[in-house]
Design goal:
By secondary structure, the protein is of the alpha+beta class. It has six helices and eight strands, in the order αααββββααββββα. The protein is globular and about 55 Å long.
C-alpha cells in the first residue's frame, strides 16, 4: 500500500488526526539510528589543527549514525547528533517525572596546542511538543517528519548557545523555524560518560521544549517579544 502526502496546506482536522502517528514515527526512527557518542568524541580528539584534517573529520562524522549536522565554522568543527531516550526531570534532588524525548547535542570543538576545546549545549523535544508542532504550524506533513525535527533542533541549538531566547514570567521560549515558538525551560543535564570529559561532573545546558505555540496560543507579552518589541509597546 502506498500512502501519499500532500505538499499543500493541510486542513487542521488532518493535522490533528496525523500528529500522534507522525510524532511516534519520528521517535521510532531516531531510536533505530542512535548516535555513537564515544566514536564522535574520539573523532574530535584525533583531529589536527589544520583545515584538511578538519575537513576529513567532518566527512567521517557526516556518515555516522545519528549525526544530524557536521561542518566547520570559525575554525571549529560543529557537530549535532541525536538520541531517543527517556529523560528524568528532577528538581532539588526530587524525581518529578520521566518522559520519552528526542535529545540533540551540539558540540563546538577547536584543536590547538595539544588541547581540545569543547563547548556543548543540548535541546530536547518530548512527543507532546512534536504533536503540537504538527497541529499548530504549517510544517510539511510527510513520512520523513524526523528531518523537519532535525532542522528545528539545529536552529534552536544555535539560538540557545547565543543566548537568544525569551524569558517571560518564569517560562522560557525559543524561536521556531515555523511561525511560532517552542515553550519550555532552561535546564541542565549531566555529561555523558562516553564523552570522557576532563570535568566528569560538568552540567550541560538543555533547552527542554515541552510544547509548540503558534501566534494564536502565545500570551501577549510573549507575542510582543517574539515580534522583537522589547519595549512591549502596543503599536497599531
Amino acid at each position: 500500500m502506498t500512502i501519499q502526502f500532500s505538499t499543500v496546506k493541510e486542513p487542521r482536522h488532518l493535522r490533528i488526526s496525523l500528529k500522534r502517528g507522525l510524532a511516534k514515527q519520528a521517535v521510532s526512527k531516531a531510536q533505530k539510528a542512535q548516535a555513537d557518542d564515544a566514536a564522535i568524541f574520539s573523532e574530535l580528539r584525533n583531529v589536527s589543527p589544520n583545515r584538511r584534517s578538519m575537513e576529513r573529520s567532518v566527512l567521517r562524522l557526516r556518515k555516522s549514525p545519528g549525526v544530524v549536522r557536521a561542518g566547520i565554522a570559525d575554525d571549529q568543527i560543529i557537530v549535532i547528533f541525536r538520541h531517543a531516550c527517556a529523560m528524568l526531570t528532577r528538581v532539588d534532588g526530587v524525581d518529578l517525572f520521566s518522559e520519552n524525548v528526542l535529545i540533540y547535542t551540539r558540540v563546538s570543538a577547536s584543536a590547538g596546542k595539544g588541547k581540545l576545546g569543547i563547548r556543548i549545549n543540548r535541546v530536547s523535544f518530548n512527543q507532546h511538543a512534536l504533536e503540537r508542532l504538527i497541529e499548530r504550524s504549517r510544517c510539511r506533513i510527510r513520512p520523513d517528519f524526523l528531518s523537519s525535527v532535525d532542522a528545528e533542533a539545529a536552529a534552536a541549538l544555535k539560538l540557545a548557545q547565543d543566548g537568544e531566547w525569551i524569558e517571560d514570567n518564569g517560562d522560557d521560549y525559543i524561536q521556531s523555524r515555523e511561525n511560532g515558538v517552542w515553550a519550555g525551560s532552561l535546564d541542565f543535564s549531566s555529561a555523558e560518560p562516553e564523552w570522557d570529559l576532563q570535568q566528569a561532573d560538568a552540567q550541560i545546558p538543555v533547552f527542554s521544549a515541552r510544547t509548540f505555540l503558534g501566534p494564536e496560543e502565545m500570551k501577549p507579552s510573549v507575542w510582543l517579544r517574539w515580534q522583537d518589541d522589547p519595549c512591549l509597546s502596543f503599536v497599531a
